[in-house]
Design brief:
220 residues; alpha/beta; four-stranded antiparallel sheet; globular
Length: 220
């Protein structure tokens, strides 16, 4: 599904150079659920951003299915991201000035989906996640657990084959963490490819495989 070969990422400033990833190779099979664990500053978020096309590698190769992502120009990289990848973030990344319906709608608008189709998809997705009664509310009016379900709906509504999650339970209590991880299990059972960053062993244990990273290098 996705393969990284000898990927290095270097951030350069006027007076410094930081090697965030060093010669990283990783393969994630289609339908696999992989958890990435590491301390703060280990390179795990940089790795996820490269997988998601949010950042570009300094050297090495990255293939998503048959697409050579490392060769993509910005416009093509944007298309690849829209067609293949959805993101779920720790702090939900909801737009406070838009209601729940409009937040879920955003990726569909980016894909130029017709209005009638957008409404149908949003209603179906909201019903599946049990948030249909929240569609007219704003993020400031709902709980943290509800916000995470809205973030899930926004990721699921476009039916991307790859789901990337950066500490998706980090802002949740234990009860809501279990509910969110049940959603990830359902996605996994539906055949989605999932790459999830976490520092929580209990969360990581939901995955098929745990990858550990330290100082920009995969150690397990």
């Amino acid at each position: 599904m996705l393969t990284l070969e000898n990927v290095t990422k270097i951030y350069k400033g006027d007076l410094f150079e930081t090697k965030a990833l060093q010669d990283v190779s990783l393969t994630v099979e289609q339908g696999e659920f992989v958890a990435i664990m590491g301390e703060s500053g280990s390179g795990k978020t940089t790795l996820l951003n490269i997988i998601g096309g949010m950042d570009v590698l300094s050297s090495g190769k990255y293939y998503l299915q048959d697409i050579a992502v490392h060769e993509c120009k910005p416009a093509k990289l944007d298309r690849v991201r829209k067609q293949h990848i959805s993101f779920i973030f720790q702090h939900f990344a909801l737009m406070e000035e838009y209601n729940v319906f409009e937040n879920i709608e955003a990726p569909l608008l980016a894909r130029n989906v017709r209005k009638s189709v957008r409404k149908k998809k949003i209603r179906e997705c909201a019903e599946k996640l049990g948030i249909e009664e929240l569609l007219d509310k704003y993020p400031s009016q709902i709980s943290g657990g509800q916000k995470q379900r809205v973030a899930f709906a926004r990721a699921l509504v476009v039916d991307s084959p790859v789901i990337l999650a950066d500490e998706p339970t980090g802002a949740l209590d234990e009860e809501n963490t279990k509910k969110v991880m049940a959603l990830f299990e359902a996605l996994h059972n539906d055949g989605k490819t999932i790459v999830l960053i976490t520092h929580d062993d209990k969360v990581a244990n939901y995955a098929d495989r745990i990858v550990k990273i330290r100082d920009g290098k995969i150690i397990l």
